[in-house]
């Protein structure tokens, strides 16, 4: 249900937006008015879930990792996120930069020193040896930020991109369950899933941005730019940064978000190289190598470890590993939807490999450079001073940089990176919230983007002032449990769809279709030894293809089926199509394609004479995006026969109930 009233144009789906806003405002008001009582109540629920149901998180994430690993090396890895002929919309670097900025963002700066130092100083592990504590700190940091975290994002992003671009369903979480829900997707179940996604996204972004503002304020105070860390300055920072985020979101993915993501990844690399160069360089290189090997060796042990035999480590396990799994799951609707939005045209294998490996590898380098540098500095230079600051993660990054030369410049660059991470997280979050609230409407008025940004800023400030951010964070962690179960259903749904997909494209032609005959073999040989120009292809289309299509059209219509012929000059192509309402149209076309001829081929005396390095040939294309083939040797009757065998295949496929999802004309305006 969408609204246009009193001249106010909107693309908001009210069945999703109104319940979401009621729940968001209700939770935020309770957290602001009764912060301590709300936090206490929610904390008791969180503790119960983490202690008694932590195995749900462990098994769910194990399933995600194994499932994505299976898809990467299976035959399904070649399937594209979109039609078979679709191309990626963004360069590989920009694509990785955007998914990276949305996926980790401020947390990467906030915890790059704080988390390894916390693990290093914790009493949960019995090792007192410096080297063992440092090694474990790096291992668990890798574990929390590595493949397991990105598998959560990757699964949701993959499901969304696959069903939206391959099946032409709305870019919405409800679409991920279409093979299981079918028509119920548009009913209460689908609406409930979208409401959950919108609320989860809003809570996750609000809390992260609230903590990000605190860190920015702390950094600016350390540099002497701001006199203190107070709510007044935090309100000023939120106002400025959210305004920049709204401007970036309005400009769209291709402009603001891509530009900021590219700048940020380059700035982060510069800061990382600075710390690597002026920190304990040889130690860090060795620590990275050792850390990666340690992570690989312990990968499966870490995956299944519940610390059930180590009671001393259980509180640490609940407050770190389980909290992280819940936190990443709660962010999955937001990050997954954003990753999906920018991933059209990638193959499943390319998507999984890039989303799991590239960010993980970069984060391992990043956490080694910052985390291990801080641990080394604490042990060899600071005499334990950094370890005493683990309760103040807001300032720990800047305190660490003080031990390096040109610390003011490094701190300024760190603040710049946090600010850009803030803006890229907020602008992509605003974009995603509007996408969910409109059920992926193609066009939305700018006031909606501004609305989500302003609401985000106002509620973040309200909670910052009242001390209610912690309650909102806990609420976000609690909602992760049901979504973990929903994500497991995503794997079942995606697998079912992939099997149908593979069977669809593997469908063979009827055994009654006519193969090449030997009647025109001399004419075919003549065509083989003559490489064609563009004008020759035009002549072939005019004299063979078009007459064949016209004859077919007349025969179709004599049998009560309306067919149409479309011919184009630029690019040179012709097609015959049969329109349908319930299923996709049947399309068979022939298009002029160009290919290059190798130099050695042109110089060989006992091969056909070739005058130019470019040659042209007529290639088929189909309405479902399957790869076509060269038809330059076909006679008119053979072209007719070829169209009919594809039409026979089309009728066979659309008559099968399992293929409903793949051939239904489900694309929405």
TrEMBL record:
Its main location: membrane. The chain crosses the membrane at residues 12-35, 47-71, 92-113, 142-165, 186-211, 231-253, 265-285, 322-339, 351-369, 409-437, 449-468, 474-499. It is a multi-pass membrane protein. InterPro entries: BCCT_CS, BCCT_transptr. The keyword Membrane applies. It is found in: Cell membrane. It comes from the Bacteria. Coiled coil: none annotated. GO terms for molecular function: transmembrane transporter activity. One of its GO terms (cellular component) is plasma membrane. Keywords: Cell membrane, Membrane, Transmembrane, Transmembrane helix, Transport. PANTHER family: HIGH-AFFINITY CHOLINE TRANSPORT PROTEIN, HIGH-AFFINITY CHOLINE TRANSPORT PROTEIN-RELATED. Belongs to the BCCT transporter (TC 2.A.15) family. This is Transporter.
């Amino acid at each position: 249900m969408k609204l246009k009233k009193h001249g106010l144009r909107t693309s908001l789906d009210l069945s999703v937006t109104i319940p979401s806003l009621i729940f968001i405002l209700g939770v935020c008001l309770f957290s602001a008015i009764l912060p301590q009582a709300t936090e206490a109540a929610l904390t008791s629920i969180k503790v119960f879930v983490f202690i008694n149901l932590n195995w749900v998180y462990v098994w769910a994430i194990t399933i995600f990792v194994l499932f994505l690993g299976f898809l990467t090396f299976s035959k399904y890895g070649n399937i594209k996120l979109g039609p078979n002929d679709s191309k990626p919309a963004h360069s590989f670097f920009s694509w990785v930069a955007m998914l990276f900025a949305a996926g980790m963002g401020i947390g990467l700066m906030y915890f790059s020193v704080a988390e390894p130092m916390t693990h290093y100083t914790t009493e949960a592990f019995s090792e007192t040896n410096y080297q063992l504590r440092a090694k474990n700190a790096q291992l668990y940091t890798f574990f929390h930020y590595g493949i397991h975290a990105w598998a959560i994002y990757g699964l949701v992003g993959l499901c969304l991109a696959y069903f939206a671009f391959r099946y032409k369903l709305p870019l919405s979480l409800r679409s991920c369950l279409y093979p299981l829900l079918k028509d119920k997707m548009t009913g209460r179940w689908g609406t409930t899933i979208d409401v959950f996604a919108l609320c989860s996204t809003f809570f996750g972004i609000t809390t992260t941005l609230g903590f990000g503002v605190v860190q920015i304020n702390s950094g600016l105070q350390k540099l002497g730019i701001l006199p203190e860390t107070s709510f007044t300055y935090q309100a000023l920072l939120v106002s400025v940064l959210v305004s920049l985020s709204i401007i970036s979101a309005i400009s769209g993915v291709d402009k603001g978000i891509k530009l900021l993501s590219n700048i940020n990844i380059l700035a982060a690399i510069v800061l990382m190289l600075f710390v690597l160069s002026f920190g304990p360089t040889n130690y860090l290189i060795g620590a990275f190598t050792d850390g990666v090997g340690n992570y690989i060796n312990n990968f499966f042990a870490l995956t299944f470890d519940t610390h059930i035999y180590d009671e001393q480590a259980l509180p640490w396990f609940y407050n770190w590993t389980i909290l992280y799994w819940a936190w990443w799951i709660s962010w999955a609707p937001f990050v997954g939807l954003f990753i999906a939005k920018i991933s059209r045209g990638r193959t499943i294998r390319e998507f999984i490999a890039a989303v799991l490996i590239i960010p993980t590898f970069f984060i391992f380098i990043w956490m080694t450079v910052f985390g291990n540098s801080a641990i080394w500095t604490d042990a060899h230079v600071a005499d334990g001073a950094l370890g005493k600051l683990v309760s103040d993660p807001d300032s720990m990054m800047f305190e660490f940089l003080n031990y390096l030369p040109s610390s003011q410049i490094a701190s300024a660059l760190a603040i710049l990176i946090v600010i850009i991470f803030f803006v890229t997280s907020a602008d992509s979050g605003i974009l995603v919230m509007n996408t969910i609230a409109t059920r992926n409407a193609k066009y939305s008025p700018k006031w909606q983007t501004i609305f989500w940004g302003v609401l985000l800023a106002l509620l973040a400030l309200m909670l910052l002032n009242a001390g209610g951010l912690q309650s909102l964070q806990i609420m976000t962690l609690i909602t992760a449990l049901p979504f973990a179960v929903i994500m497991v259903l995503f794997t079942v749904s995606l697998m079912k769809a992939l099997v149908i997909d593979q069977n669809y494209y593997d469908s063979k032609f009827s055994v009654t279709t006519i193969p090449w005959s030997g009647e025109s073999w001399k004419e075919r040989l003549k065509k083989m030894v003559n490489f064609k120009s563009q004008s020759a292809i035009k002549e072939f289309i005019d004299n063979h293809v078009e007459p064949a299509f016209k004859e077919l059209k007349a025969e179709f219509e004599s049998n009560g089926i309306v067919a149409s012929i479309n011919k184009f000059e630029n690019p040179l192509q012709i097609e015959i199509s049969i329109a349908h309402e319930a299923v996709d149209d049947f399309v068979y076309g022939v298009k002029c394609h160009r290919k290059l001829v190798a130099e050695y081929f042109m110089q060989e005396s006992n091969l056909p004479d070739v005058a130019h390095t470019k040659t042209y040939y007529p290639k088929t294309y189909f309405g479902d995006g399957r790869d076509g083939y060269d038809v330059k040797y076909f006679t008119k009757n053979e072209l007719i026969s070829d169209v009919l065998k594809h039409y026979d295949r089309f009728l066979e496929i659309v008559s099968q109930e399992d293929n409903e999802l793949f051939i239904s004309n489900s694309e929405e305006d």
